Amino acid sequence: MPELQQVDVNDREGILQALEQDGGLVILKYLSDARLERVRNALARAISGLPWCNTYHAYEDEFFGHKTKRLHGLLQYGAELEACLMHPRALDLAPRVVGGPVIMSTGELMAIGPEETQQRLHRDADSWRRSGLSKEFLFSVNIALTDFRRENGATVVVPGSHHWPSDRQPNNGELAFAEMPAGSALAYLGNVIHSGGENVTDEVRMGLYFGYIPSWLRPLENPVQTHPADTLARLQPATCQLLGLSEEGFVAYV
Questions:
Q1: What are the distances in angstroms from CA 97 to CA 4, 19, 199, 211?
Q2: Nearest to 31 by CA among 47, 43, 49
Q3: Half-sphere exposure at residue 169, Cβ-oriented, CA atoms within 13 angstroms
Q4: Strands of 6-8's sheet, edge to edge?
Q5: By CB neighbour count within 10 A (0-12 exposed, 13-18 middle, 19+ buried), where does 77 fall?
Q6: What pLDDT, in 10s, does the model give residues 178-237?
Q7: Beta-strand (E) ranges in the chain?
Q8: Could you give the CA distance from residue 232 to residue 238 in angstroms, rounded to a whole number?
Q9: For residue 227, which of 108, 74, 59 has the smallest C-alpha distance?
Q10: Beta-carbon contacts of residue 236 (< 8 Å; ≥ 6 apart)
Q11: How far apart are CA 199 and CA 183, in angstroms?
């Protein structure tokens, strides 16, 4: 069974090499302990108040999970979430992956609860499959807010699958598990096969996801729909740019 490479957040070249070879890796020390705690505290009340399977009720519940919670509009929960989106390492790597300036595709907190089954294996890039794009155009970061272990739903990743033909399916011996301590991050490419893992514990596994795409591509999330206007008005100009909000447009409107 393969294992994902684990690389320190400061080892830029090591991260890029692992992305090229395997399509995904664990970045260690992505968040400091202090920031990790502040992010957890900022999100705790919002996620605890949500029911399981709280989104997409009319569409593929088996895919989105009966024991999974999803939270969007993340930047409304404070400056620490904005800092996670604007993480210097992500903003350094994403343009290298997609070949130019980037915007956010979507941000999401995913909580996988006890008794959740493994999600169907998939590629995130398939969200744009009708476009016929062939190059990598999605760079994803899933930050572990709790320890990720195989038993509690660590993300399942198929190393090297970004080099495969689109119709090739993995066997069980090709699956790796993104086991990592809280504060680490799973970074992976849009064409890598992966899924949420099975949780056979009594714990809730929480991951904070941000996706980055080329600035010319349409994102999955419309931040004007998912965030209150006063949240968007207080964001830094660079963050607004990453969300695809023009200063002369949105700022003048609010």
A1: 19, 9, 31, 12
A2: 43
A3: 4
A4: 6-8, 24-28, 185-189, 139-144, 205-214, 102-112, 68-71
A5: buried
A6: 999 999 999 999 999 999 999 999 999 999 999 999 999 999 999 999 999 999 999 999
A7: 6-8, 24-28, 68-71, 102-112, 139-144, 156-157, 176-177, 185-189, 194-195, 205-214
A8: 12
A9: 74
A10: 82, 86
A11: 20
Which tokens sit at 21? Answer: 């070879």
> Quick one: tokens of 16?
């890029």
Going by CATH, does the domain composed of 6-221 fall within 2.40.170.20?
no
Domain ranges of the chain: 6-221
Q: Which one-letter DSSP state was computed for residue 107?
A: E
pTM (2 decimals)?
A: 0.93
Q: Please give the radius of gyration of the chain, using alpha carbons only, rounded to the nearest integer.
A: 17
Residue 184 makes CB contacts below 8 A (sequence gap 6+) with 6, 26, 27, 28, 29, 30, 143, 144, 148
